[in-house]
Amino acid sequence: MKGKLGFGIALILVLNISSSVAQRISRIDGSKISADVLDQEIPELMRKAQVAGMAIAIFNQNHTVYKRTFGYSNALTKKPLKSTTNIYGASLSKSVFAVLVMKLVEEGKLDLDKPLQEYLPEPIYDYLHLKRWHDDYSTLKNDTLYQKITARMCLDHTSGFPNWRWDLPDQKLKVMRVPGKRYSYSGEGMVYLQVVMEKMFGKSLEQMAAELVFEPLGMNSTAYTFLPAFEKDYAWGHNTKGALYEKDKDNEARSPSTMETTLDDLTLFVEGVLQDKIIDKKTTAQLFTPQIRLRSVQQMGPMSLKDTDAYDGIQLSYGLGFGLLKSPFGWAAFKEGHGDGFQHYMILFPKQKTAVLIMTNSDNGESIFKKLLELTIADKYTPWKWENYTPYPGM
């Protein structure tokens, strides 16, 4: 189903308004902004950049102080986006998985630095693959480098795997560089960790996520697959012209990419991280400790292979499941989400006890992130050029 949206009308709906419309929200630089101002400014940014729908939450003192949804879950039918609307989480899945992994590390069930192959009685390539493709490691039979890959390397994107096997000319998975030596964003790395964990513990990703993260936090509308319960209210992705993408509902559970969630649930997750509800302070500190400095011009694409000193001022780095930067207000941890029709971002400033979560169902979403981050929490440090968040003209 495809449709095209005209954005020349007042399309914004504001939901989940907090109890005090005069509420003042603290930003990381000590300045404040009112909820009323955000309620006015955010819809205008969306209108200019033709963003169909947005869900946003802001956190002060590690608690939610602002939570809103604007616009539509389906701009063609004008169905409003709600805080309970299912939204495809894209790569925000990775940060949730990182917390899950660190819970197992905290419990002594997984060692970050033990080669993952050593946990298995048989070579990974000898196992019968039971999924459509993501647990097929038959092409690693003559690959000796994969045996060096650890959980830490999978979480900090130094596994040496490509982002996806489909990115390679022959579409056959291989280790592209010596593990642990260079950052290279990789969904395959996290899938490999997931598959090893499933074999180690005899549980699926869905089971582990539910037991260790979703249920303890009350994330009752989140899963790594699209569930029948989500049919009643889910967000459609929109391209840059406002046309609808087909909704992908048949993904098998993959740790880096298939999470389905809601604003309400992901707000609980961010609070859970900020308040150490799943993992303790020491483990959270590990999550947010730089593992490798990032010097590439951009995170993805050809420019990821070229280096620059442009980000030395913020000591751009990668932790475990989160990117890291150093600001005058302390270290910050960030994570992007990007898929067809869905563009998301969250950044946490633990020292300031401040964070923001942004989710959009539009390919235009990232074009207003720079402005939105500055407006909401005075974040002027997010490396938007590195993330290829090209601002909408005039923003």
Overview of the structural elements:
The protein is α+β, with helices and mostly antiparallel strands. It has two domains: 24-90 and 234-377, DD-peptidase/beta-lactamase superfamily (Beta-lactamase), CATH 3.40.710; 98-201, no CATH class. It contains eight helices and 13 strands. The strands form three sheets. It has a nine-stranded antiparallel β-sheet, with helices on both faces. A two-stranded antiparallel sheet has the order 1-2. β10 and β11 form a beta hairpin. α2 packs across α5 (205-217). It is globular, with a radius of gyration of 20 Å.
Short description:
Helices cover 23% and strands 17% of the residues. The chain is an alpha+beta fold.
What key phrases describe this protein's structure?
395 residues; alpha+beta; Beta-lactamase; nine-stranded antiparallel sheet; two-stranded antiparallel ribbon; 23% helix
Strand arrangement within the widest β-sheet reads 5-4-3-13-12-11-10-9-8
Low-confidence stretches: 1-21
* Biggest sheet character: 9 strands, antiparallel
In the CATH scheme, what's the topology name of the largest domain?
Beta-lactamase
Overall radius of gyration: 20 Å
Q: What class would the helix/strand composition place it in?
A: alpha+beta
Give the distance, in angstroms, between the N- and C-terminal Cα atoms.
32 Å
Helix and strand pattern: EEHEEEEHHHHEHHEEEEEEH
Number of helices: 8
- Under the CATH scheme, which architecture of the largest domain would be assigned? 3-Layer(aba) Sandwich
Query: What share of the residues does DSSP label as strand, in percent?
Result: 15-25%
Mean pLDDT: 94
Report helical residue fraction: 10-25%
Q: What shape does the CA trace take?
A: globular
CATH superfamily of the largest domain: DD-peptidase/beta-lactamase superfamily
Total of domains: 2
CATH top level of the largest domain?
Answer: Alpha Beta
